C-alpha cells in the first residue's frame, strides 16, 4: 500500500482522534477513590501498566482504521472500526464514573466481539489492519476477564 504525502494528513487525523479521545476519556474517568478499595484479582496488573499499553494499542487502532478507511469508507471493516471505537470510549465512563461494573462487562464483551469481527472481516482486504488488531483483541480479552473478576469480587 503506497502512501502519498497528502494521505499522511488523514493518518494524523486518525491518530489525533484515537489518541486524543483515549487521553481525554482516560483523564476524565481516571480511577479514583471509588476504585482503590475494590477487591481485585491477583492477576490485576499494576496501575502503571495501563497507560503505555493503551498508548501502543491506540496507535495500532488508529493505523488500522486509517488503512481500512483508505480501502473503502462505507465497507463493513470501517463500520466495525467505528463501532469498536464507540464501545472502547464508552467503557471507562461506565466502569469508572458510573461505577457500573456489570454494564461495563457487557460493553467490553461487545467490544471484544466487534474487535474479532473486524479482524475476520478485514483479513481478506487488509491483512496488516487485521493483524494490528490482534494485540488489541488479546488485551481486551484479558480486560474482560479482569472486569468480570472485579464485578464478581465486589
UniProtKB/TrEMBL annotation:
Leader sequence residues: none
Membrane-topology annotation of the record: Multi-pass membrane protein
Highest rank taxon of the organism: Bacteria
Keywords: Membrane, Transmembrane, Transmembrane helix
Record localization: Membrane
Transmembrane portions of the chain: 12-36, 48-68, 80-97, 103-121, 133-153
Gene3D superfamilies: TspO/MBR protein (1.20.1260.100)
Primary location group: membrane
InterPro entries given in the database record: TspO/MBR-related_sf (IPR038330), TspO_MBR (IPR004307)
Entry keyword annotation includes Membrane: yes
Family: Belongs to the TspO/BZRP family.
Protein name: Tryptophan-rich sensory protein
